[in-house]
Amino acid sequence: MPEYPEMEHYRSQLSSLLCGQKISSVVVNRAASINEPVEAFAEALKDRTVLFVERRGKHLLFHLDDGHRLLLHLMLGGWLAYGEEGPEPDSRFQVILTFGNGSSLYFGGLRLGYLHRITAKVALELMKELGPEPFDPRLTLEAFRKRLGSKRGKLKTTLTDQRFLAGIGNCYSDEICFVARVHPAAATNRLDEAASERLYHAMHKVLQDAKEAGGYMEHPLTSDDQLTGGYNERCYVYDRKDEPCDECGTPIRFETMSGRKMFFCPNCQPED
């Protein structure tokens, strides 16, 4: 599932490609991916101009010139492509927006994800449910510690809770825990000050590095996109079951927690 680095990477690319562009046509191949009748959705978007693209947590919000927003959540398996031609037959994409410049934005894999047209008021209400952004300047080390101390349960569950922090999921929670040398199953409210500080700085390091590397998803946005997926080969532990830890050589262990994948090094991240 795309997380902060992937969605921020999408936002950055799409901002330069879409801002000021007018939607000329809309194709919907899966009505369940949108939130209103297909004809009404297509008619409402035709001739609308994209003013800017915003990211909040794992969501993208396309701000339109009529005051509405297109709210995108890719969920598990969703991805985007942009260009004059899609990388696969058009029928494989749930929604296609074509712009006046002749290029199209293709929304693929939206079996669980969605693209909803909503008002600005509804968007604000929905986003209020999310926790702070990892790089929000108001999320100081002290504020981070207070949030951790107020949470019960396991650390991985806490880090992936979008009400605690917006944008972190399975992959980067494991990566952050590894860099911080904390076991992902540690009790959140029992972490000492040293561990919470390591987590705070590890969060910033991992997410920044992953964003600059294009995230871990392997679907390039455009035909000349050479960056997307660059972090996939840099993962410390995620999706590396039984591979040797880069730090100590111990095989990476895989377990599940509350139905989520969990990867860690049992030597570098000993369980208390």
What's the tally of helices? 7
CATH class assignment of the largest domain: Alpha Beta
- Kindly name the structural category: alpha+beta
- What separation lies between the terminal Cα atoms? 30 Å
The gist of it:
The chain has 272 residues and is of the alpha+beta class. 28% of the residues lie in helices and 21% in strands.
List the helices and strands and how they pair.
Layout: H1 4-18, E1 23-28, H2 38-45, E2 50-56, E3 59-64, E4 69-73, E5 79-83, E6 93-99, E7 104-108, E8 114-118, H3 120-127, H4 141-149, H5 155-159, H6 170-180, H7 193-212, E9 253-257, E10 260-264
Antiparallel strand pairs: 1-6, 2-3, 3-4, 4-8, 5-7, 6-7, 9-10
Helix pairs in contact: 1-7, 4-7, 6-7
What does this structure look like?
- The protein has helices spanning 4-18, 38-45, 120-127, 141-149, 155-159, 170-180, 193-212; strands at 23-28, 50-56, 59-64, 69-73, 79-83, 93-99, 104-108, 114-118, 253-257, 260-264.
- The longest helix has 20 residues, at 193-212.
- The protein folds into 2 domains: 4-127, MutM-like, N-terminal (N-terminal domain of MutM-like DNA repair proteins); 141-264, Helicase, Ruva Protein, domain 3, CATH 1.10.8.50.
- Helices cover 28% and strands 21% of the residues.
- The strands form 3 sheets. Strands 1-6-7-5 form a 4-stranded antiparallel sheet, with helices on one face. A 4-stranded antiparallel sheet has the order 2-3-4-8. A two-stranded antiparallel sheet has the order 9-10.
- It has 7 helices and 10 strands.
- The protein is an alpha+beta fold and 272 residues long.
- The two termini are 30 Å apart.
- Residues 236-270 form the FPG-type domain.
- It holds the Pfam family Fapy_DNA_glyco.
- Its EC number is 3.2.2.23, 4.2.99.18.
